Amino acid sequence: MPMNLTPNAIAAINGGDVNSKPLVQVLDIKLIGSTQERYRFLISDSSSSQHAMLATQLNDRVKTGAVKKGSVVQLIDYICSTVQNRKIIVVLNMETILLDCEIIGNPKTFTESESTAQKAMPNGNLGHPMRVNNFSAPNSSTYSTPNSGTFRAPNPSTFNTGTFGGPNPSTFSSSNSGNFGGSNTSTYSGTFRTPNTSTFKSPNAGNDVQSFRPTVQPPYQPPPNYRNHGPILKNEAAARIIPIAALNPYQGRWAIKARVTAKGDLRRYNNARGDGKVFSFDLLDSDGGEIRVTCFNAVVDRFYDIIEVGKVYMISKGSLKPAQKNFNHLKNEWEIFLETTSTVDLCPDEDSSIPRQQFSFRPISDIENAENNSIFDVIGIVISVNPSVPILRKNGMETQRRILNLKDKSGRSIELTLWGEFCNKEGQKLQEMVDVGIFPVLAVKAGKVNEFSGKSIGTISSTQLFINPDFPEGRDLQEWFDRGGKNAASVSISKEIMAGGSKNEIRKTVSQIKDEGLGRSEKPDWVTVRAFISYIKSDTFCYTACPLMIGDRQCNKKVTRSGNRWQCDRCNQEFEECDYRYLLQAQIQDPTGVTWVTAFQESGEEIMGCSAKELYSLKYELQDEMRFGEIIRSRIFNQYLFKLKIKEELYGDEQRVKITVIKSEQLNYSSESRYLLDLISKSRK
């Protein structure tokens, strides 16, 4: 079928057009880039051709054959950007009009001069020579007039009345037939130099016409009435709102309108360049596009308090960089970094076209074969919730952890680990519901897969939890559970949990610690031991610690006396008062054996029932040995559940196994009885 391409489309796009939605033909397609797949097109408007980059979200169009060499396409969203001093068209969206077509016209490579001519002539007719100050100069020896066709220069002669290009601007008035290439009177006041000495004469100019030397075609200059009117104002028009999916680093001015679906915590860091702070938030627009936005330091101060989850914002003037997929789970190859010039404006009117959240739910059975650290959206029925327990992180900070179990229609169940504030907010609410026999639906947005001792899923900073959500997947799952799913068999893809136990709780006896060589591998062993405290070392139960804060946590390094003050070598500071922290050494024993353990601050307080400073004051300041002895003796032969970290460490030239108490709980006989009964029941099977 005959097909007409949009005339002069290439020149128009290079001239700034972004709205005409032209028809062009794809002459060539080439895959470029080693780390990231990108396609480069050669497109044509039948007279000119130019390279164009295809936005990566359109890569599937090429891979599926929806566009190929010869295809006629309509450019829907596009922009012309300068990359390494070359202009290139970036195609953000397009539609295929004709899949197979023979080459139309005889296109030639587009040049910058064509773009200049396009701007100079409003009618866009590239077939006529460019008009420069009422002179048509297609080349250095030919002048075109409206009616006389081509006028060639006679033998060189000299006009003595003036020359264009002298130190003082001359004025050439063309009110009659001396107007070359136009019919409107205009005044020339620019510089017009020539590379040769040929003299051109107007056919009707007369002897009193100003003389000038010819020149090659000069660059376009604005008409005289636009000159000397001061600097041109910066374009302050609002940036065009584009979909998130169309964002790319080649755009100059852009704006997006989107809803905040998640907001990360404010984090502080320290590196070679000093201290800093950072936070991120996720955006979702009406087309379903998602992207993460990150702010650092001074930008954090501007926007952290402004951003609220669920609100809609207009955002512009940020820079786009490749997304760090180790930390960013969104389906977008780019990430926005806001700068001091960026704008974030709250949209006061609610936009119902933008969803509040977007899910990609997968059945629990899919997680069984998922890669470690991958991100999943999952929805299930909460069938059990464990109590929240404190956990000591590697950086020495304590956090909370709570384990619950989910099941769905896939016949599988999985452990969900809640960390930090999730334990006290959603976790506490879920436990209260399950304790009274209510089994709610829980939707998890962006849970992280963990494959330690089977597959489980855990919360991260960008995770969101929705209890009994009001959408079709939630209602359908609740109906299934009520109709009989509650009693349907399901297989756990996580490590099995004993009643009254917690995630990955490995019960051992004291003798098994030595007999099984625990702690002698590269990674520490974590076990739970039910034992009595048989002895507490009372002469060195605590140490003097630095009370100063480093970032958001206390230094806690050992300090020494310096006169009447305390000195910290790490902080290089002195202070009047120090802190006292437990370094409690004790023996624990069960029917199988005895071993030494060390309990630090939190676990020491759990054992002793008072702070290290109170106990230090009682012994050394008040010197109340009787009361001090009573407290120590009251802890002897009490039974505890000790959660232990066992790791071999080097002391001098000797390797020793160090056993640290991470948590100690006085034995709950009811929970322990349930655990033992369940253990007996399983041993009979």
Automatic annotation (TrEMBL):
Domain of life: Eukaryota
Compartment(s): Nucleus
Biased amino acid composition, Polar residues: 135-162, 193-206
Stretches for region Disordered: 135-206
Signal sequence, renumbered to the chain: none
Gene3D superfamilies attached to this UniProt entry: Nucleic acid-binding proteins (2.40.50.140)
InterPro entries: Euk_RPA1_DBD_C, NA-bd_OB-fold, NA-bd_OB_tRNA, Rep_factor-A_C, Rep_factor-A_N, REPA_OB_2, Rfa1
Keyword Acyltransferase in record: no
Domain Replication protein A OB: 364-468
Family of this protein: Belongs to the replication factor A protein 1 family.
PANTHER family listed in its UniProt record: REPLICATION FACTOR A 1, RFA1, REPLICATION PROTEIN A 70 KDA DNA-BINDING SUBUNIT A
Protein function: Component of the replication protein A complex (RPA) required for DNA recombination, repair and replication. The activity of RPA is mediated by single-stranded DNA binding and protein interactions. Probably involved in repair of double-strand DNA breaks (DSBs) induced by genotoxic stresses.
Protein name, per record: Replication protein A subunit
